[in-house]
Amino acid sequence: MNGLRGAALACARDLAARAKAAPALKCDVVLCPPATLLWPLGEALKGSAIALGAQDCHARDSGAHTGDLSAQMMAEAGCRYAIVGHSERRAAHRETDSAVAAKVKAAHGAGLAAIICVGESQAERDGGRALAVVARQLKASVPEGADTSNTVIAYEPIWAIGTGRTPSATEIVEVHAALRAGWERGAGASLRVLYGGSVKASNAAEILALDGVDGALVGGASLDAGEFWRIIESCP
User: Fold this and answer.
1) CATH code for the domain defined by 5-233
2) I need a surface site. Which of 42, 148, 170, 216 has the fewest CB within 10 A?
3) Which residues are annotated as catalytic?
4) Is 156 within 8 Å of 217 (Cβ atoms)?
5) Furthest CA-CA distance within the chain
6) Alpha-helix runs per DSSP H in the chain
7) CA-to-CA distance for 9 and 40, rounded, in angstroms?
8) Where are the domains of the chain?
9) DSSP state, residue 102
10) Using CA atoms, how far apart are residues 57 and 80, in angstroms rounded to an integer?
């Protein structure tokens, strides 16, 4: 929940200009702004290699759900992706794995690729339950019909989000390997697994070079076009 129209447009236009000037991007780049900014940012990104995504969607296509937005609405606004099951949604809005799975299904129905977030709390990490937690979330949050072409998994340890702390390289590699092994919808080797949690320009190259890390779910660092671009350039 960051960004008003002026600053967000300036950031999107800056990134779009950099993308157009670059010979070729080495990775897929997606901006997922607040819903109020989807239309203007979508216009700002037109003609660039940067895609638009939503931060959430409702499980239903329409109905008496005041304040909510459907995946079809997101698609109409120009989105190609939707983040679902972010830890802040799971915690603050008490979203269960089954609720996340229903949203993923809705996203797929609207032609959107779903970025499903999983991750453990500090207590779960300290208690040695991190792998069990993310395995449970993965199994219960992925609906039938999901495959590696329409679904991306993002590992975001809750205790690392916005804290400046990151897991060790060994811990990140271990969780990403477990998620790939636990993928039940075809070949796990082709599954894209992102890391999210205090990713910034200063640590992006190291994280993105780790075995099994296919990209990053970037939070606060994406609010600065220059820093976000440096993260993009860190992609191997």
Assistant:
1) 3.20.20.70
2) 170
3) 86, 156
4) yes
5) 48
6) 5-21, 38-45, 71-76, 87-92, 97-109, 122-126, 130-141, 169-182, 201-208, 225-233
7) 7
8) 5-233
9) H
10) 12
Cα–Cα distance, 193 to 102 (Å, whole number)? 20
C-alpha span between 63 and 224 (Å, rounded): 37
Sign of CA dihedral 33, 221, 136, 146: positive
Q: What is the pLDDT of residue 187?
A: 75
> HSE-up of 155 (CA within 13 Å, CB side)?
29
Q: pTM of the prediction?
A: 0.96
In total, the chain counts a number of residues equal to 236
What's the rounded Cα separation, in Å, for the pair 94 and 12? 31
Q: Which mean pLDDT values do the consecutive 10-residue runs of the chain (236 residues) have?
A: 96 97 94 97 96 98 97 98 96 96 98 98 94 97 95 95 86 96 84 95 97 96 97 95
CA–CA distance, 151 with 76 (Å, rounded to integer):
19
Residue 99: what pLDDT? 98
